Amino acid sequence: MDLLTTLFAGLNSLTWGATLMLAIGGGLIYLAIVKEYEPVLLLPIGAGAILANLPLSPLVGEDGLLGILYNAGVANELFPLLIFVGIGAMTDFGPLLERPHMLLLGAAGQFGIFGTLFLALLLGFDINEAASIGIIGAIDGPTSIYVSNLLAPHLLGPIAVVAYSYMSLVPIIQPPIMRALITKKERRIRMPYSENPVSRRTRVLFPILVTVVVGLLVPMAIPLIGMLMLGNLMKESGVVERLVGASSNEIANVVTLFLGLAIGATMQADAFLRKETLLILILGIFAFGLDTAAGLLFAKFLHWITRGPLNPLIGAAGISAFPMAARVVQKVAQEEDFENFLLMHAMGANTAGQIASVVAGGVVLALFAAR
Amino acid sequence: MDLLTTLFAGLNSLTWGATLMLAIGGGLIYLAIVKEYEPVLLLPIGAGAILANLPLSPLVGEDGLLGILYNAGVANELFPLLIFVGIGAMTDFGPLLERPHMLLLGAAGQFGIFGTLFLALLLGFDINEAASIGIIGAIDGPTSIYVSNLLAPHLLGPIAVVAYSYMSLVPIIQPPIMRALITKKERRIRMPYSENPVSRRTRVLFPILVTVVVGLLVPMAIPLIGMLMLGNLMKESGVVERLVGASSNEIANVVTLFLGLAIGATMQADAFLRKETLLILILGIFAFGLDTAAGLLFAKFLHWITRGPLNPLIGAAGISAFPMAARVVQKVAQEEDFENFLLMHAMGANTAGQIASVVAGGVVLALFAAR
Amino acid sequence: MDLLTTLFAGLNSLTWGATLMLAIGGGLIYLAIVKEYEPVLLLPIGAGAILANLPLSPLVGEDGLLGILYNAGVANELFPLLIFVGIGAMTDFGPLLERPHMLLLGAAGQFGIFGTLFLALLLGFDINEAASIGIIGAIDGPTSIYVSNLLAPHLLGPIAVVAYSYMSLVPIIQPPIMRALITKKERRIRMPYSENPVSRRTRVLFPILVTVVVGLLVPMAIPLIGMLMLGNLMKESGVVERLVGASSNEIANVVTLFLGLAIGATMQADAFLRKETLLILILGIFAFGLDTAAGLLFAKFLHWITRGPLNPLIGAAGISAFPMAARVVQKVAQEEDFENFLLMHAMGANTAGQIASVVAGGVVLALFAAR
Amino acid sequence: MSDLRFGLMLMLFGMGLVFIILALLWGVIAIFQRIDRRLLSESEDEPLPADIRAPVAEIPAELMAAILVALERYREEETAPIRGRRPKQLEPTQARWVAVGRAYQLRSNITPRRKRS
Amino acid sequence: MSDLRFGLMLMLFGMGLVFIILALLWGVIAIFQRIDRRLLSESEDEPLPADIRAPVAEIPAELMAAILVALERYREEETAPIRGRRPKQLEPTQARWVAVGRAYQLRSNITPRRKRS
Amino acid sequence: MSDLRFGLMLMLFGMGLVFIILALLWGVIAIFQRIDRRLLSESEDEPLPADIRAPVAEIPAELMAAILVALERYREEETAPIRGRRPKQLEPTQARWVAVGRAYQLRSNITPRRKRS
Ligand code: NA
Ligand code: NA
Ligand code: NA
């Protein structure tokens, strides 16, 4: 009967690709719930993937809920930027302000971006795609989404998935590299801890100055760094608790949910199930590893030239991935010397990595604009 | 003087229709505040009606606040779907998972949709209007709004008002029908209570599987069932409390306010003050009654064929109207036997009715699409 | 090298104007944080000004975050109206309902609007600009933004900045005027306090009636008064706590942040750095002073004709600026007689000023529409 | 010049209208006040909540805070089982129903016809 | 007429489909139930939270409320240092790290080679 | 090929720029640090909050939680009467003003010219 055929059009138009995508969506939800890999993003992404890949889903397309969310906040970059306000409102740059030289370790921790970019080029990706894949090496979800959405929006799905699911792998990826590159003796180095009280004035001026300095040098970085620092300014000001709360709770939660769903919806079978996605999965691991190695080696180099008490392990915290990377540093250091306390130094490098990631994202965009 | 004429253009253009609508808006606010009939929706609807019917109100139209809200979330179905995420995040399907055969009672409780649809056709409504009126029988606000907005947006105002104001009449409408159709002896039936522990795995897999099964069979139901189950998945996962909170509080509250205002604004005199509205008021009662009767008779039939300890009263809980209907069942059962505890069974039927309502909404849309 | 030139395009295109605007943005942030002048608005405005004036900022323009926020809520008046819902939900009109004659003092406190308007005309502003500047005399941020955005959107930046930064100067501007215009003897007048219990019925009916009465007379005032009273109706109804919470917290906070940023972004060098802005700064002070003087003199007049125990000081509370003005009245009265308790009377006049401000805003718009 | 004249008119009509409208509102409220007072003199109407809160000031604020938190929790748990009112508390309430109902049902199942016997 | 016929079809197919789909869901859940029961009989699976909450009813509600608040706070402080989970608590936790770390480091600095000696 | 060359340039310039910018930020912060230290040595500046929180660890967490809740409530009630800061607490504060004011005024009304006599 004709009606029945039309009725079960859904079942009829189920493809193998869509079936696989449903499974992948389920897999992401599994990672989110059972493995607790960044559940606040991977669960909505997985759910979005399932809802978008059910055949004939009215949720996709211009008029579907997921399409509306995509246009309302992903296509125009609104959502990642709003999330940055929340991140800024939650980040304490105190440890960094006490030891500002840690900023160099943050810079070194971005090498993965450029190394991966180059490798992706060699593997045949075009330059925009390569840069978007490289930005996975920022190891910062919103930066990856922001940059890749501007340079290669068709890769947004796999890049976001890789960026967020690998984030949870930091404690697995980093330790072997740390043990391989840093000698036992170096790992035992204790770092003296001298208190450098940071005045409220400095804490308040810091976000303003970072915005102005970075913004003047790299206008393309203004949205990323500006929103991050706006959140931090509100937090440190101490006078707009209502806005800090709204940024780090209401806005962050709602936007995270919508962003996850919208990104999941970009994972449609024909766009996602390609060998490029597989390559991105591999290049992602590579980016994480290269970041860590570069951070460690640069710290080792600093230790060598300064001959000071700088434990090269803290270089691994420069990749951002806040605060996981800093804790990994502390854990690996304690394996050798239980009384070695590197956490505060690592936290400085870690927040430096956060700033450096955002700056690197802006630099990549600026170099593209200047091309 | 000319200026004064223009100045008091508002008073001059006050029509009898608008005056009546202001009174109706006031009446809805009265029901909301004094009678406490679903105040979170009826108060904004009433306020929206008043604000939209004041002569020359700048709030209506494309550029007015109410018009903006309508376009931002009603015309594109965003608001009812977001509310579904919140409902899913608040619903505990445990009682249903313990007694899944209750799903059949939920199915029976949807007969009012189709019976009312047919009656509306006989009364001269066209098929789209008839289906929109029938969907009042889903006894689920967001489903009614979602479906009627797609099929007959010009009836959205009266349908939404009826759907929400009658919801509070469930404890008044149901008991007489229950006493009329179910004999005293049947009402005394006690239902044995055996524990069926539900594992967390089942609770988490349930929303995913419902989405996939229903979604594959009835693609038009994906938005409704998908959003409901997304909320429930987040709740049962236990790992995204932030998102559950955002869905069931921030998003739900803000969207409810905006949805109510926007629906109230559709109640403009010339669209609302027609004999159709009166018919919808009557057909709405009919839909509620027919749902209840069908649920009861089907439960009676099940009792008759299984000869098991199934108290037919719980059929009345299959209409959805969660959790009022389940409590009405418990109350009516206790009238005959104070120690009869049906509530858990009724809760199962009640959440089954919630799922069935959404499925029925999708089925109606699917049949229209397949026409 | 060409790349470097393009790279440092930001630094190259830094103008003196932009530099000054960056300083002004910093100044607003200083006022917000150090002086605590309305920080919830001045901090985002200052931040918006900085982010918008950094050369080549991608945040401005149609596709930039700040441009998106502007179009999403300032251009269409959504944000100020939503803030009004929150203000209504926080305002207690009880003191006014006990002494409704205070409404006249609220009316008198709006004279600054019209006086400043006339003065601005004399200074060469065109009529739309003059009215927008005059509306600073409403001494109510959202009203100023709403009206000036409709009449002279190009002045929105300076007007909003003046409206919010002067609000905090009320305790500095008012006392000298009060001491100059009201004699010592008058300032010692005690006002008898008789309790007029206000029933819940009256409290609930008040916002509805104000909306209908004002709305019928001045349709252009419906958005302002309607949203204010919607919030108050929800509060007084006592049955929609969820919506009251959403209005006065989630919505108010998020909208305040976005509104501030979007307004700050309108402060671009070429639009802001003109002699008009300087004049607006001066006219703003004038508006505040004129409001206070008119309120005081009218109260004095009332005291003279009624010969009753009416302390003319409370006229100063009629300007709105809730609740600062009421406290200033109490403070100045206590300077003369420590046991004089005028606060409750002043609170009545203060909320009357809030209503009168909104009415005056609507009246100005209505007179323009009727022109 | 036309602008100036319109400005003057704005001033006169504007202040006039503002006064008229607020005077009108005064009238409306006054009527309500009269009704209130009449009803109050007949029967006891609900007074202002402020009067109830007045003695609160005598309790130390910290203790007050603790009591408030506890009472709020209590109130939330006891009321609010209707979906859509206080969503957060829906589940625990249901769980309690489940618990009570089960305990009850299990017991009544052992002697299922106790009442009829 | 065509409308009426379509209406009738809607009624028949509609109710039919609703029943079929819900019966199907019943089947799916039933399978899960069976798996659950099998696994339960083999090992102890996590039971319904309701069973745990049952004895709660015996504790006075006010006391319960106070305990709940305290426990919630405690839980929030102890867990949740990962950014993005419970953002509000991030800072105090960090501050505690800072404090502990500093106290520790300062002490270990005085005798920096204690362990190796 | 052009892509590869641009990629190489991206790598060199990119890493270079990132290092330059962060080094610059280091310089800026270092200047601030110096100013801070100079001001600190002159007078006592506000220290890091962490130092204050350190001894907290000795109090049992549950007790701490209860105290925190109570203190928070207290703080909210006492401060915050300015609209726009902590909106939730506006009303109760007003109600207290009303109460205090009324008690006061009613008393002072009985002997209205007490002071001047
Ligand atoms: Na990074
Ligand atoms: Na139903
Ligand atoms: Na005013």
In short:
The complex is a heterohexamer, with 3 copies of chain A (371 residues) and 3 copies of chain D (117 residues). Chain A is mostly helical and 371 residues long.
What are the main properties of this structure?
heterohexamer; A: 371 residues; mainly alpha; 21 helices; globular; D: 117 residues; 4 helices; rod-shaped; disordered C terminus; binds sodium ion
Would you give an account of this structure?
The complex is a heterohexamer, with 3 copies of chain A (371 residues) and 3 copies of chain D (117 residues). Chain A is mainly α. Chain A has one domain (2-368). Helix content of chain A is 74%, strand content 0%. Chain A starts with a helix and ends with a helix. Chain D is mainly alpha-helical. Chain D is built from 4 helices and no strands. Residues 45-59 and 74-117 of chain D have low confidence and may be disordered. Chain A binds chain F through residues 94, 96-97, 100-101, 103-104, 106-108, 110-111, 113-115, 117-118, 121-122, 126-127, 130-131, 196-202, 205-206, 209-210, 213-214, 217-218, 241-242, 352, 355-356, 359-360, 363-364, 366-367, 371, and chain F through 3-4, 6-11, 13-15, 17-19, 21-26, 28-30, 32-33, 35-37, 39-40, 45-48, 50, 85-87. The complex binds sodium ion (3 copies). One sodium ion is lined by residues 109-110, 138-140, 319-320, 353, 357 of chain A.
List the helices and strands and how they pair.
The complex is a heterohexamer, with three copies of chain A (371 residues) and three copies of chain D (117 residues).
Chain A: H1 2-7, H2 9-12, H3 16-33, H4 39-53, H5 65-74, H6 78-90, H7 94-98, H8 102-108, H9 111-122, H10 127-134, H11 141-151, H12 156-167, H13 170-181, H14 184-187, H15 200-217, H16 222-237, H17 241-265, H18 269-272, H19 275-306, H20 324-336, H21 343-370
Chain D: H1 2-42, H2 49-53, H3 61-78, H4 90-110
